[in-house]
Structures are given as C-alpha cells and as structure tokens.
Amino acid sequence: MTTFQAKQKLTFEQFLELEVEAEGFYELVNGEVVRKLATRQHDNIADFLVRQLDRENERASLNYRVSGRVVVRTLTPDGQEQGRQPDVSVVDQALWDSNLSAYTAFVEPLQLAIEVVSTNWEDDYIDKLDEYQRLGIPEYWIVDYLALGSRNYLGNPKVPTVFVLLLDENGIYQCNPYRGAERIISRTFPELALTSEQIIQA
User: Fold this and answer.
1) Disulfide check for 65: which of 24, 74, 96, 129 has CB 3.0–4.6 Å away?
2) How far apart are CA 165 and CA 167, in angstroms?
3) In a domain, 11, yes or no
4) What is the CATH number of the domain that holds 141?
5) In the chain, how many domains are there?
6) How far apart are alpha carbons 175 and 177 in whole angstroms?
7) pLDDT tens figures, 16-65
8) What is the pLDDT of residues 84-138, one digit of tens each?
9) Minimal CA–CA distance to 154: which of 192, 195, 185, 121?
C-alpha cells in the first residue's frame, strides 16, 4: 500500500472530492490517502464473491446491490473519520436508490462488508472490525485465504479460514469460523450454498 500525505488531515468529504492521478483503489486512513494494491489471487476471490452473491441475490429475489466499489465512512475510537472500501459490499437496494446522483459512498451501515486479507492483516482483524462494528454493519466477513492472521484467530497449525461476524443485540460481533467443506452460514444470504473451500480456491 502507498500513502499519499496531504498538507492537512483530510475529512471524509474532502477525500471523496480528491483527484488522485494514479489508478487503483483508495482509502482514507488517519486523515491520509492510502492506495490499496492487491494480488491477482486476492482479486480473484473478491470477484468470485461479487459474482456468487449477486447471483444469490437474484435467485432468492433479495433486495440488495452487490459491489466492489463502495466507500463507507467509519469512525475510529477517538472520532477520526475513515474512508474504507471493502473488497465486497452488499447494500440495501432502497438505500442505494435513495440518492442515485450521489457518489458510491455511504455514511449509513452497509448490510454486509467483506475483506479479503492481505499482508496487513491487522487492519481487517482489528481496525476495520472495530470500525464496522461501531458503524453497525450487521455482517462482516474476513476471508483469510493465506492464513496470515495470528494463531489466536486461526489456531495452530494455521488454516485458511472464512470468518463470519454477526452483530448481536448488544451491537457486538460474534465470530463464526468456517474451514474446508463447511457451508458458510450468512444472515444476509440465508440460503447461500457456498463453502469456505470454494471461496478460498476461487
């Protein structure tokens, strides 16, 4: 990842208006613009999930919009605005349609956010988890296809895992790990027929 330092810390609104010459995806992290670079394998998994969830959305006649280009405003514990771009986002279609002339950016909670873990795995397991929980995103997936996270999460030996975190009635994520041929249980897509293995091998 590459960080572009501004003369001053940027707000979320300033970040949305910013023009950056280099192609790619960007996040606002601690007031600075950070370019996200992904491996082809990482992109394969993210693209696979977009396709699978979009198909399930149509098959089950659900009312969602599935995208890999959504930016969402989150807050750190001290109130710092962040601009996060999940690898996969699922947005309620009514929320998406509420202002079609707006940027593909939201201050409201998404229905589901998915992060495919990269070498900076702490961002997904710690920072984004905390921010998505604080925003109230009901469902958050962490796809650790290379088993990069710590043994505290992945066990010993470390095994590639898909974590599905669901908000409980107290607004706290409850974590459910899925490995191998285990079918993913999703609150957003309750009839989804997809295993951890299928995602990781995409």
Assistant:
1) 96
2) 7
3) no
4) 3.90.1570.10
5) 1
6) 7
7) 888 766 667 889 999 999 888 888 999 999 999 999 999 999 999 999 99
8) 999 999 999 999 999 887 778 899 999 999 999 988 899 999 999 999 999 999 9
9) 121
Let me know how long the chain is. 202
Could you list the residue range(s) of the whole structural domain that residue 121 is in? 38-72+84-200
Is there a contact between 173 and 166 (Cβ–Cβ < 8 Å)?
yes
CA dist., res. 22 & res. 88, Å (int): 22
The tokens describing 144, both together, are 């650790």
Record the pTM.
0.92
Domain-located, residue 49:
yes
Q: What is the strand order of the sheet 32-36 is part of?
A: 2-4, 32-36, 25-29, 81-84, 71-75, 105-106
Residue with tokens 């397991």: 125
**In-domain check, residue 53:** yes
What are the Cα distances from residue 79, in Å, to 24, 61, 155? 27, 38, 33
| Assigned domain for 108 exists | yes
